[in-house]
Design brief:
Elements lengths: L5 H6 L2 H11 L3 E2 L1 E6 L5 E6 L3 E5 L2 E7 L7 H9 L1 E6 L5 H6 L18 E2 L8 E2 L5 E12 L4 E12 L20 E3 L3 E3 L21
Antiparallel strand pairs: 1-11, 2-3, 2-6, 4-5, 5-10, 6-9, 7-8, 9-10, 11-12
Length: 211
């Protein structure tokens, strides 16, 4: 078994350390965040840090790297107040990954990929047509992580678009039916397989499989 101490981690080449630390915490979500500038230029960027914050009210969060360089996504949703979250599926991983490239603010990532800019129900931020699960969000707040300068962004979920065939009677979404992918580290994509779903856990009772 390999073992790396804190001192070992500190001595590693930065790219090696980034791959190691981003991989060792497990699979992460893969989402494309869509936004639009005040001048009307759409922006699309892949994020692997979108997380559930709460369901009452419905909120999500994601981590934004330090604002030491211009972050077009950040500028856009701060100006407009809105952004979309679009789950990445197996069919679009190559184009989704390409949105990580650093394009100038006057160039839309939609124009550099085969992803299609889509608008629904008069929502200001663009959605990704090819994404099966789309969320329309409004900016709520941000919190600085003082230890590294990153920001935790909080968004309110205002719209949810999902295929009928992945929605169960109790509200659970079966993501494998939508071919939703997960991110392994920074640049590897995997297709999760449903193993089991269990009923609500109760003390002194064995877990009951419900799917």
């Amino acid at each position: 078994m390999e073992h790396f101490s804190k001192e070992d981690l500190g001595k590693m080449p930065s790219r090696y350390r980034a791959h190691l630390i981003n991989s060792c915490t497990g699979y992460k979500s893969a989402n494309l965040l869509g936004s639009k500038s005040a001048s009307g230029i759409s922006n699309l960027a892949i994020f692997n840090s979108v997380v559930h914050i709460g369901s009452t009210p419905p909120m999500l969060g994601f981590i934004l790297r330090p604002l030491t360089v211009k972050r077009n996504t950040y500028v856009n949703f701060k100006e407009s107040g809105f952004f979309s979250v679009n789950q990445v599926n197996e069919a679009i991983i190559k184009d989704a990954h390409h949105t990580a490239a650093s394009y100038d603010e006057n160039i839309s990532e939609f124009s550099k990929t085969n992803l299609t800019e889509s608008y629904l129900d008069d929502f200001q931020a663009p959605y990704v047509k090819e994404s099966a699960i789309k969320l329309g969000c409004s900016y709520v707040n941000e919190y600085e992580i003082k230890e590294n300068g990153c920001l935790l962004i909080i968004g309110a979920i205002e719209h949810v678009y999902i295929p009928d065939d992945i929605l169960h009677d109790d509200g659970w979404l079966q993501l494998d039916k939508a071919n939703t992918v997960a991110v392994n580290g920074l640049d590897a994509y995997a297709l999760p397989q449903l193993l089991a779903r269990f009923a609500y856990a109760k003390p002194d009772e064995p877990s009951k499989n419900i799917v």
